[in-house]
Structure formats: structure tokens, C-alpha cells
Amino acid sequence: MNYFKKIFRFAKPYKKYAALNIFFNIFYALFSALSFVSLIPMLDVLFGEEKEKIINKPVYTGILEIGKFVKQYMGYYIQSFSEEHGEQYTLTIVIALIISMFLLKNMCNYWAMYFITFLRNGVLKDIRNAMYKKVVELPLAYFSEKRKGDTMARISSDVLEIQHSFLSILELIVREPLTIIFTIIVMLTISTKLTLFVFIFIPTSGYLISIIGKSLKKRSDRAQKEQGYFLSIIEETLGGLKVIKGFNSEPYFNKKFQTSTDRFYHYSNKILNRQNLASPASEFLGIVVITILLWYGGHMVLVEETLDPSQFIVYMGLAYNILTPAKAISKASYSVKKGNAAAERVIEVLEQENPIKDMPKALDKNYFEQSIAIENINFGYEEENVLHNFSLNVPKGQTVALVGQSGSGKSTIANLLTRFYDVQEGSIKIDGINIKDYKLHALRSMMGLVTQDSILFNDSIRNNVALGKEDATDEEIIDALKIANAYEFVKDLPNGIETNIGDSGNKLSGGQKQRLSIARAVLKNPPIMILDEATSALDTESERLVQQALENMMQNRTSVVIAHRLSTIQKANKIIVMQKGRIVEQGTHDELIAKDGVYKKLVAMQSFE
């Protein structure tokens, strides 16, 4: 029930729709009961039962006698109306009354459903938006431990399950209980004795129904986790099709996927079979109660003669009228159990603590004046440290390159500078201020990032380049493309900068994608540039063009360059040679070559590649 409350906080903006739904549901429940009561006059006219029975107009004697008063008054009124206008005319009026009651009942039902639609879909939209916003805000460390497919399943199918389960309760929470309450009130006015007899059996049948759904939440949770797993397989398959085909691994991935969908198949069957048992079980138990009513009520009509036949027929209709909402409520209780598992998975993401956030009174300073100082950093992704007592100073306007073998901690520096991860020991300062004291948006607005993997989106070249400056003009975008040596191929495309580049930019070559990434960083025009192995995945010709683009971009900027190909960083003001998270050498290219140490060995090794 805690998850139920947490999900329903999303309904607050739509409370007017909830109020209108409740309003029309109240009248639906009322007309639902009265529509059956309106049958009594018609049956009385047809059977002619009340003509000789009531001579004087009944007198109201108190709330305890309200049922008897209503019956006598209705009989007296029909008798008087029939004597004055004739039975055929009276029957016509009574039928018109019945049609009006059922029309009003169904109109109220439509309007109740109409308004609840806005609430249900609005809550669904807001939960999805909140989930997406949270996913975008969460640090990279969170996703290194989670499957992407599982996150996708939570945003898509789990949220949809909440709509089908929790939010469907909103339709039932007022309408069905009120229908039962109003129906029972009318049943009490017809026969208190018979209604009390019914109540002996209702708790028993309710208990039997509740037993069926106890394990539903646990099984539903398993199914939703399995769905997240096979969505992860789909995501990985689509991302790695070249490798899968190249290594003839289709059978392996088919088997892996089919094993997961088989598990999902069995879990889903168990859940649905348990859920489907709710409706027939509740209907059967309801019919058992109805047959007992027929026996006991028939005894009251035929033997005791304490109940009129017309009233007994309507009473049976009212008793059956309780079955439909009772079935809906029992079904809804299963939906809540199933939805509880989905809500738990959604709330887990929404309430996930984000350790990388703005400090109280964080600075909104987005300009760079003096230097970047990395002081005595120790950092590890898990237990073992990647960086050991690492210190570095980058003065404004200078280019500092980080080189070393894979796993030496170079890319970790880029992750810490941009606060994708937070420093565990030591500090990083910009202009003497700890980067944790900056607003995240302000800090990242000072930095441009070009990574080894050219991360582009299925959109136009214009929108990909303008990602950091959405209001950029065409001229600004073209200028950025020219600096990045990208305009030479963009201008030849069918739609120029409006050309769609496909999923992950797969319509372009590696060099073209990288130059678009550089153009994106150029257009943002940040004072600090971070280049994380920006040329390592390129051929020689592409590397030459990209390197030229990088040199154009780095003019008059402070740059931290993480390099694999050492030929690209010979002009750097300072080169830092790293080994296992420690600085082993530093200096200019010429100084390091003269030292005849680690750097020279790296250069020599690459010259033979």
C-alpha cells in the first residue's frame, strides 16, 4: 500500500478530473440501484397486486419504517394513477421512467469514464517523464551496475502495468463500493430479514477469493525482471550485430534470448491463470449466494407471505447487481498485487539517491580565469584504486596531454573533471574553487567534451551540432563545421545540415562522425576542452583531418588531451606520462625524448605500428 500512496502523488495535478469522476460515479451508483427499483411499479401494474391492498394514503412514521412507507406510497400512487388514467397509460409512464433511469445511469457512467481518462493518462505521462528525467540525472556509476534493458522495461512496461492496475482502481474505488452500498440500502428497504441473511455468506466468499491472489505480487516481480533481461539482450544485439554476424554467433544469442522468453512465458502463464481465476470464482460464489436467496426468498413469498412477488423479483435483480461490482473489486485486488511489483520497480528508480548533485548555495560561475588544480587524488571505481595520490596543474591557455598504457587512469581524469564521478580523496579546483562547490550546469558549461566514441543521435546534422547551443543560427553551425573540417562533406549531402545521419550516425564514416563531434564542441565554445582519445579509432587520412580540426579548436583554449596516438600531442605545453594511476614522467615532447625513459619507449613502440 506504500507504493500505492507514492504513485498517487502523481495524481495531484489532475484532482479536478478525480472530483468530476467521483461526482458522476456517485450518481451512476445511485441510478444503478434506482433503475432496478423503478421495475417494481411496472411489475405491480402488470400483476395488479396493489389495487385492493391500499385504500388510504400512507403516513411517514420514521426512518425505521422508511422501507415500508416507500413500498406503500408507491403502491398507493400507482393504484390512484391507474384508476384515473387507465392501466395502459400508467404502464407507458412507468416504462418511460425505467428508460430514463437506465439512460441517466449510462450517461453518468460515460462521463465518469471520460474524466478518469485524463487522470489515468496524465499520471502515466508524468510518471514516464519523471522516470526519464531521473534516468538522465543519475550518475554514470548507477548504469555501470544496471542493464539498459531493465531500465527501459521500467520506463515502458512497468509504468504501463501501473496504469492497468493501480490506476484502474480509480475507476472502481468510488463507483463499485457505492453501487454495492446503494444497492444494499435499497435491498434493506425491500426486506431487512432477507438482506441480513445474505450478509452471512458474503464474508465467506470474500475470504475464499482473497486466498487465490496471495502469491501474485511475487510472481509478477519475477516476470517484470525477466522482461528487463530480454530487453537488455535486444539492446545488446542491436548494438553488436556486426560482431554477432562476424563470429557466427547468431545461434548463441538466439538460444540466450529464447531461454529468457521461455522463462517469461512460464511466469506470465502462472500470473494470468491465477488472475483469470478471480472472475469465475467470484461469479460462482455469487451464484451460490443467489441460489440460497432464491430458496429463502421463495419461502418468504410462498409460505410466510411476508414479501410481494414483484418486490422479490426486483430484489433478485438487485442481488445480482452486487455481483458485477464485487467481481470488479476482486479482480482489482489482484491487479493491485500485480501492480505493486511494477510500482516497486518504478519507485526504486524515482527514489534512487543521486550522490552527484549541487551543494547548498553552489556557485553559478561559468567562466574560467586562472587554472585547473588536481590535488592529491585517490580514486577507484570499486575496491582497488585507479589513481594514486595524483596531482596536476593546468594553467589557463595551455594544453596538457595525458599518455600511458590502457588502464593507467587517463580517462578517469576526464570523468572526474566533468563530475561524471566524484573524487573520493583529494580535490579538483577551478580558479581555486572546489568543483563540488560549482553548480553542475555551470561547471559543465565551461567544458567541451570530445570522446573516442563519436556519440551522435538519430537526428539532423544541425540538431547534433547544436546540442550545446540550441539557439545557434545556420551561419554559426556552418562556421563550427568549417573549423572542424566537416563542412567539406556536409555541403555535398542531399539536404546539407538538415540531413538525417541515422541511428548513432551510421550513415557517416568514423572520421566524419568524429569531426561532427568536434564541431559540436566548437559551437559550444567552452573555455576548457577535454579530448578523450579523440583520434585513436581513425585511419591515417581521417586522423590528419581530425587532428587539424582539433588544433583549430584548441587555439586560445585550455585543453586536457588524453592521447593514445602520441603523434597527435607533440605540440602540447606539457605531457604527463602515467603508469598504474601514478605520474612517472612529465615535460614537453622534446624534454621527455631527451630523458630516454617511458615516454620515448612508447613513441618507439608506436613508430613500428
TrEMBL record:
* Claim: Nucleotide-binding is one of the keywords in the record: yes
Q: Which UniProt keywords apply?
A: ATP-binding, Membrane, Nucleotide-binding, Transmembrane, Transmembrane helix
TM regions (residue ranges): 20-43, 88-104, 172-190, 196-216, 277-297
Tell me the SMART domains matching this sequence. AAA
The record, for Pfam families, names: ABC_membrane, ABC_tran
One GO MF term on file is: ATP binding
ABC transmembrane type-1 domain ranges (all copies): 19-338
Q: Primary place of residence? A: membrane
* Membrane topology, from the record: Multi-pass membrane protein
Please give the InterPro entries that the UniProt record associates with this protein. Answer: AAA+_ATPase, ABC1_TM_dom, ABC1_TM_sf, ABC_transporter-like_ATP-bd, ABC_transporter-like_CS, P-loop_NTPase, Type_1_exporter
Statement: the UniProt record of this protein carries the keyword Transit peptide: no
Highest taxon, organism lineage: Bacteria
UniProt xrefs under PANTHER family: ATP-BINDING CASSETTE SUB-FAMILY B MEMBER 10, MITOCHONDRIAL, ATP-DEPENDENT PERMEASE MDL1, MITOCHONDRIAL
Put simply, this protein is called: Antibiotic ABC transporter ATP-binding protein
